[in-house]
Please model this.
Amino acid sequence: MKQLTAMLSAPKTAAPPAVFARQRPRYAEKLIEASLLAAALLTILTTLGIVYALFRETISFLGEVPLTDFLFGTEWHPLFNPPAYGVLPLVTGTLAVTGIALIVAVPLGVGSAIYLSEYASKRTRKTIKPILETLAGVPTVVFGFFALTLVTPFLRDIGINVDVFNGLSGGLVVGILVVPTIASIAEDALSAVPSGLREASYGLGATKYQTSTKVIVPAALSGIVAGVVLGASRAVGETMVVLLAAGQRPNLTFDMREPVETMTAFIAATGKGDIPTGSIDYKTIFAVGALLFVMTFVLNMLSNFIVGRFREEYE
Amino acid sequence: MSDSRRRLRRPSHRPSDRVSRTAAAAGAAVGGSLAVPVDADHLPRATRRDVVRERYFKFSLIACVAVSLIVLAILLIDIVRQGAGALSMDFLNNFPSAFPERAGVQSAVMGTLWLMAICAFFVVPTGVAAAIYLEEYADRKRWFNRAIEVNVQNLAAVPSIVYGILGLAFLVRGPFGFGRSVLAGGLTLGLLVLPVVVIASREALRAVPSSIREGAMALGATKWQAIWHQVLPSAIPGISTGAILALSRAIGETAPLIMVGAATYVAFNPDGLNSAFTALPLQIYSWLSSPQEEFKLLAAGAIIVLMAMLLAINSIAIVIRNRYERKW
Model:
């Protein structure tokens, strides 16, 4: 194709035939390319904007609160007097909720993926996949409603003595929310395993269970792990469910029947108030946001790395 | 698992259990280079235990799928059960109110429509342009083009609340200073779904065979003429499906709007780009945070309205995909 364009625009010395008459540089073409590039650069600008916004305020926050106090302090109440800015309770809250979510989401997601890729008939798959996508499309505030008005009362009914706001129901519902993420990536990885492996395994007399667990899942393991890591990243960044159902009390505990506050919930709860720009309360949003951004960024990169590094090259 | 995986790649000749031999042999059959002597007497044969295990395994997999489906069903049924009572023409026409029986969602629905319009107006041209650049112009050997690609992937996984912080720092306050306006909200949502639109549009462009481009250029079209008159029209069904799905994600987002919008008690419709606003998800959130039980029922009603809008939007996407999608 390059040659073709070169041929069309090449004849410069000899008088070109009338059809190829246009030889002047095409400024409009260049202009269009430049504006397309500008649109693409906007995505870079977004990232830079996020990093700049987060870290500028964070640095100024760290000017007032020492880094060690922020990272390792066990008390978080910016609005008390004297205030305490130890982010640990928010981090443990986030990790605990994420942990519960993964306990729910990993078996459900990976199990669904194995079923869809290895067991389900074509027709079953065609019905179930759109339903899972529907689950992924439900707004998170709706899941928050679900956690608050249905899951928490249900937990009480079955004898788990949870508070009105508690980490458990938040975590369980975040888990359900993450299932489609894990299931869809894991299913892609499983279906990418060439059918030759499957057939060879069956040919040697292995059962479907043996083939799935000893051949197919190990071969797709990197994709499955990448899906789980991305799921964890989503759980860490999930806001509405925990904001509505887990409460807003920074709480350094792993007893998930109590209210806990996650990093995202703190950001949202503080961001909705009308706090003055430049105040320390305003800066806490950015400091916690920067920590959240770093955590999810590391998880996302890890997921990318796993896919890239351990991708099995078949064919 | 990791254990048998290692064997799959580099089989040991130690007599191991039947099953991992299966795996190793399976690898041998495909790869060819993994030589494992297959001993005919030791070929696996399904025993009674295997059959039982098979059944349990299949059952638990089906249970995994079933749990998700059942939860989704319970969720939908519960919302309809709780929210159906709130639905009425008054509910759609009224503004938020301190009295549950008089409260409605008109300003929230209008706010959501405004946000969608602003978001679409910003994100569709920008996202498609970025996709055209990456797919048609970018030389993948150049480092900054690869950087843009990786960056788009990463942006797609940044938590939505972080976009809220970005909107708060740059659009509401800071350099742009739009205030807590519907413009700031729409643009924040636009930035949030930009990666989705870029990725979907790239896929749509990639699906157009290169013979179309070559044909156009052979007839004397410039690169841009080929793209504008031939490639883009062929990719439009895919692009619009992706854009619509991105919009449906945008209107369900709450967390970024909490950061930029914040006003949850807005008893008027937006009347311009600088107007304060509320939106359906925000209204749902604010009603849910209220301690009064009546407001929780209103929240369920508003969820039905929101889900109905999402359903309508997604149906449009499906219709477009089914009607106009071309197989090359």
